[in-house]
Amino acid sequence: MLTNTKSNILFITLGDQTGANTALIKVAESLHQKGHRVEVLVRDKVDYNVLITKLPPRKNYSSLLGHLVEKNGVLKAVDRDPKYIFNTINEENSYQDTSVILQHLKFTPQIIFVGITFDFLTSTDILNLSEATKAIVYNVAVDMNHFTGGCHFAWNCEGFIHGCDTLRCPAILDNKFREIAGRNFRIKNNNVKSGNFKLLAGTKWTQKQALKSLIYKTQEPIFNISGVVDTTIYNPYKRHIAKDFFGLDSNIFYILAGAENTQDERKGYDYFVKTIIFFWNKLQPVERAQIEILSVTKILDEPIHKDIKFKKKQIPYIKDERLLSSLYQAADVYVNCSVEDSGPSMLAEAMACGTPVVSFDMGSAQEFVIDKETGYIVQNKDSEALSEALLRIFNTPFQNRLEIGINGYKLVSQKGSLSQAVNTIDTILEYHQSDFNKYSQSISVALCTYNGQKYIAEQLDSILQQYLIPDEIIVCDDNSSDNTLNILQTYQLKFPDLVKIYKNDARLGVVKNFEKAINLCTKEIIFLSDQDDIWLPKKISSIACLFNYHPAVEAISHNLQLCSEDKALFNFTMWDTMGFQNFLAKNYSNKDYLFHTLFFGNMVTGASLCFKKPSNPVVFHDHIPHVIHDYQLAITYLSKKNIYFHNECLGLYRQHSKQQIGAVLDKVIQHTKAINLFYELSNPLWNLLYINKRMKNEPIFEYVKPLQIKEVKDTIDMIIKDTIIAFFLPKNWEKQLRFLLGKIISKIIKKIHEE
C-alpha cells in the first residue's frame, strides 16, 4: 500500500461563529497548513471557508424535538434552570442519517474531534459515524456537556460523578421530566463505551472534572489543550499606541471586563460590580478620578451596571480579532469575574496582549494567573479579595505592570497558544498512528484492458490518487495490439508492489477477462474497473465506510456521472439512463430490485460495482450477448438480497464510440415511461403483456432460466400472480375498461390521420 504520513482529520462543531466553534476551526486550518487532510462539519455556516462543510438536516428533522416533551398530548418545552445550560432533552434525536453524512465528507476520517454539537449531532450520531468510518473519536470538552446528562456546567451538582440517574437533577425544574437527564447520561455513557470515545480537555479545569466523571474517569491519558490563542494576533506589540487608537487618555487607568452576556449568572457580573464598589471604597477621591471602567458585551445587565460609580464606557461586543487585541492592549488590567466557566477565552487573550489579570480561582485562571508574576488570583466569588488584588495592580508602578504583562504573554505563548494546541493534536495523532490502519479493509482493484492506450493512464491515475489507496491493482490485458501494455509497464515500474500485470496470450473477451482478474485478486474488497473511466478521489474510502456501516452487505453499487470523450458532463447520471433514479425516487408499494433488473435492465454497472471477495472462484457465462459479467453479478447479489445501492456519483463514466458497453442515452425517456406505466398506471393487462414480451425477447432470461435460481423464479412468479389477481378484482374493472377503450380510440384516431 502507498503510505501517507499525513492524517485524515474531521472536526465537528455547531457552526463557524462564536468562540469555542471558531477556536476549533483555527486548529483545523493550522493542521491543514501542515499538510493534513482536514474537513470541518457544521450545522450553521456563515463565512466562506473551503474546509467547512454544512450538513443539511434529515427530512422532517426539527431541533425542537431535542427540547420538547409530551405533556398531556402536546409537545411543550421542559422547564429548566438557565444557569446549567441544559440543551439536550433527547440524546437520540438524530440530526441526519449516517449514509448522508458520509456523502458530505470529502474523505474517510481516521480521527474525529467533536466540539459543541447540541441541536446538531448527538452522541448516537457520532457513534454511528465512528462505526462506519472506524475513526477514533475525541470529544473536545470546552465545557462539561460531553460527560453530563445534558448540562454544560454542573455548578455544585455531582450527577456527572455518580450518574445523573442517581440524583435529583437541579437543571430540570419539572419533576415529571427529571429522568431525562438520567436517560441522556446512560445513552452517552453507553455510546462512549461502545465507541471507545476519548476526551480532549479544553482546560486543566475541565480535565480535572473529566477525571472525576463516571464516563471518563478511567481514560488514560486525558490530553489537554489549555488555550487556542493566536499569538500572531494577540500580543503586546502595539501597547504603546493602543490607547491613542481608541481615543483613550494615557493618564487614565482602564479596567477591562466583559462577557457576551453579562446577565449570564456564570459570568459573575454582579460579583464584578461588588468588586468595583469595594475598590471604590478603598480609594481617595483623587485616585477615583484616574480610573475608568470598560465593559465589552452584547447584553449589559443595566440595573447592576448603574451601581458602578466610576466613569464607565460600554463597548459593543467586538468580533474583529485585531480590534479586540488592540482593546486588550489599551487596558491596564483585565478583571475576570466568571464563577463557573472552563475559560473564559478573554482571560488568556488579554494576558497574551500583555495585560495583567486579576481573577477568581476557576477555569483557565488556574493555569495562567500566577500571583505577582502574571497577575493575582483569589478565592472564587470573594469580591472583597478581588478588589484587594485590583488595588495591588493599581498601585504597581507602570514598568512593573509591563513586566507582569510580558510574563503573561510568555506563559500563554508556552501553554495556551494556537501553535501549542496544534502540537497537542500532533501528539494525539502520533499516539494513535498504529491504530489508524487497525480497521482498514484490504482493497483489490480488478482492471481489464484491451487496446485502451487513449484512456488507461487517466484511469490508473484516478485510482492512484484515491484518498484510500488500494493494496493491489490487478490488470489483465486481453492481448492488446496498441501501446496499452507499454503504458501499463511504466506504472508497474513506478509502483512494483501495487500494480500487477497479467497478459493473455490469446483474447478471452471482456467477460472471461474479468473472471480471470477477479480470481487473481487476493484482498478483502474487490473493485471492478474499466479502462476508460475516471474515479473520483473519495470512491474507495466512501465504499469502505459503507461496508463498515452495513456489515451484512456483500456488494455495493454506486451511481456514475456520464461524460463525453473529453470529460464534458452530461445532464444524465448512469441511473437516469436506466430509469433507476426515477424508480428510487418513487414510493412504489411493490418495489423489488431483482424484478426491476430483470424487466427494466441492469443498473449495476461494472464500473460502479465492488464486492467482498467470494469464498469460491467466480465463473461467468460468456455465450449470451449483452449478459456480461456485471449483469451476472447483479443477478447473483440481488437474488441474495445482499447488495446496497449508494446514490452518489463516485466516478465519471465516459461515453465514446469504441467502448464495448455504454449507457443508452437515447432511451432515458423510454425507460422512464415504461417504469411509470408499470408501477403508476399499474394496469394488469398491460403489465402481463410487458412481462411476457420481456421474457421472450430479452437475453437475460436466456441466462437465468437454465440456472434455475429459486429467488429469481419466486420473484417472477409472485409478480405474475399479483398481476393476475389484480386483473380479476372488481375494483379494477372500470380501470381496465378505460385503459382498453383508450387504446382502441387511439388506434381509430391514428387510422383517421393516416387516411
From TrEMBL:
Transferase recorded as keyword: yes
Keywords: Transferase
UniProt-recorded Gene Ontology molecular function terms: glycosyltransferase activity
Pfam families registered for this protein in UniProt: Glycos_transf_1, Glycos_transf_2
SUPFAM superfamilies found in the cross-reference section: Nucleotide-diphospho-sugar transferases, UDP-Glycosyltransferase/glycogen phosphorylase
Glycosyl transferase family domain sequence ranges: 321-410
InterPro entries xrefs: Glyco_trans_1, Glyco_trans_2-like, Nucleotide-diphossugar_trans
Domain Glycosyltransferase 2-like: 444-552
Name of the protein described by the UniProt record: Glycosyltransferase
